[in-house]
């Protein structure tokens, strides 16, 4: 596939070295398969897969599989033993591995559920609230949370503004896997019409700023805000982080030691990128903020939440 002028322009913005520009463009125009990846939700049985370790920081509950493997067709998948995801999602969510024990996790843009499942497995919170505002995506979120036996969990569906107004300063961790232009879909051989167009990018960036600003308001004092995308444009990544820190100076981006080799060269803020030419996954951006404010965490009355689905530990 011939690269578009907009893709070529983005490659020059992202990389100074022509060889790196060419590798990036080639990966998107002639995509190659990546290793399928699974997150073990339940105790791992005698695995039917030949697992691979592809990074030293890969958590023990993540397995990467041979490229031709199709784990979604295995009976263990339907029984909820594991969740299928791209390794880029593991990269993005791995910032959560540095967080101490948390009681309440709020996943703001949760569908299809991968980050909620990762947070539940990695942190074992007392409650995870998964929010999805787009109605047609709720079904897959509910299905995945139920199938993977995530508990205690609550699924809700309200705009981020509503949560900022109703449960401020309440959540130990808020995850924003932000809606984006989806440029990394091309690295998977999928389509994302208009994903490099400035109008699309600016529309996404404005939406991301609104969501992250509302999300910041429900982070408890000394709590965490994890922001991530699966796109490459600086407007949706580094520039959103810079915007947030200007408006919410009580937040500070946290250095993630195991991701130091992936530090974004486009900012001095500690935030991290995986590009598709790294051959690990389709690409992702991730950053972890901490709310440095002191104060009391406000309690959330789960019974008063407008729940779509609710499951307690048995």
UniProtKB/TrEMBL annotation:
The active site is at residue 230. Keywords: Methyltransferase, RNA-binding, S-adenosyl-L-methionine, Transferase. It holds the Pfam family Methyltr_RsmB-F. It comes from the Bacteria. GO terms for molecular function: RNA binding; RNA methyltransferase activity. Belongs to the class I-like SAM-binding methyltransferase superfamily. RsmB/NOP family. This is RsmB/NOP family class I SAM-dependent RNA methyltransferase. S-adenosyl-L-methionine binds at residues 109-115, 132, 159, 177. GO terms for biological process: RNA methylation. Residues 1-292 form the SAM-dependent MTase RsmB/NOP-type domain.
């Amino acid at each position: 596939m011939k690269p578009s002028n907009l893709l070529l322009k983005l490659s020059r913005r992202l990389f100074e070295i022509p060889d790196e520009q060419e590798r990036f463009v080639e990966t998107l125009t002639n995509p190659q398969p990546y290793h399928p990846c699974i997150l073990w939700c339940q105790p791992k049985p005698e695995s039917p897969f030949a697992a691979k370790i592809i990074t030293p920081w890969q958590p023990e509950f993540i397995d990467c599989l041979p490229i031709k493997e199709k784990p979604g067709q295995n009976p263990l998948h339907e029984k909820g033993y594991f969740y299928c995801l791209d390794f880029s999602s593991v990269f993005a969510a791995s910032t959560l591995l540095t967080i101490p024990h948390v009681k309440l996790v709020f996943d703001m843009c949760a569908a299809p559920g991968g980050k909620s499942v990762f947070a539940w497995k990695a942190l074992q919170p007392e409650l995870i609230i998964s929010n999805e505002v787009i109605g047609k995506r709720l079904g897959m979120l509910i299905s995945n949370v139920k199938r993977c036996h995530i508990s205690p969990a609550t699924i809700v569906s309200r705009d981020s503004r509503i949560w900022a107004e109703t449960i401020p300063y309440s959540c130990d961790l808020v995850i924003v896997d932000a809606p984006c232009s989806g440029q990394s879909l091309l690295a998977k051989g999928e389509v994302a019409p208009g994903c490099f167009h400035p109008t699309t990018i600016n529309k996404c960036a404005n939406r991301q700023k609104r969501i992250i600003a509302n999300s910041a308001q429900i982070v408890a004092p000394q709590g965490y805000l994890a922001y991530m995308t699966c796109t490459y444009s600086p407007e949706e990544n580094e520039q959103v982080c810079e915007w947030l820190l200007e408006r919410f100076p009580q937040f500070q981006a946290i250095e993630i030691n195991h991701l130091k080799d992936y530090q974004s060269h486009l900012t001095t803020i500690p935030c991290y990128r995986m590009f598709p030419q790294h051959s690990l996954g389709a690409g992702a951006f991730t950053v972890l903020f901490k709310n440095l404010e002191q104060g009391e965490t406000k309690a959330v009355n789960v019974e008063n939440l407008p729940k779509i689905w609710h499951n307690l530990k048995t």
